[in-house]
Design goal:
single chain; 5 helices; transmembrane; membrane; mainly alpha; transmembrane helix; 153 residues; 2 strands; two-stranded antiparallel ribbon
């Protein structure tokens, strides 16, 4: 049930802080979910960490965690700077926030580490967020001809 409240909180924040920008960022947010689902699927398969006590699971991942990550990816992308030097600094700071939230989840027993340490997650978070920043450019930024690579319908 705590993940349900986390999802509710994340999407309330999303509505208040992003608002109409959601229509621009929703596709890029799906990229963030794809990265997270891929990493967490293999990590839970190899028993590095597990998510016990969730209500609904999709391939060993709690449904509400996926919803939280989708909202978090959109929040991350909403303020992502255009220049890569600033993106790196922004990503390092954002990963600290993500790590703090993961520490809270660990303290409440929502994630258990049989073969993992909390500080490992920081490097995984930075790498995943930088990959999201790189791949989101293909969805959000126009190509050299002035058209988006994945055009709106």
């Amino acid at each position: 049930m705590p993940m349900f409240y986390g999802a509710l909180f994340t999407w309330t924040l999303l509505g208040l802080l992003v608002g109409r920008g959601f229509s621009r960022l929703w596709k890029a947010g799906l990229i963030g979910v794809a990265i997270m689902v891929t990493v967490d699927y293999f990590s839970t398969s190899y028993n590095l960490y597990v998510y016990p006590g969730a209500i609904v699971y999709l391939s060993n991942l709690p449904l509400f965690l996926i919803i939280i990550i989708y909202g978090g990816a959109i929040l991350y992308l909403n303020w992502l700077p255009a220049r890569w030097g600033r993106r790196l600094l922004y990503t390092v700071y954002f990963a600290v926030i993500v790590l703090a939230l993961e520490a809270v989840m660990h303290s409440y027993g929502m994630v258990v580490y049989p073969r993992w340490q909390l500080w490992y997650s920081y490097f995984l978070d930075v790498g995943g967020l930088l990959l999201l920043a790189f791949l989101s450019d293909f969805v959000l930024l126009p190509n050299k001809r002035g058209k988006k690579l994945f055009a709106e319908n």
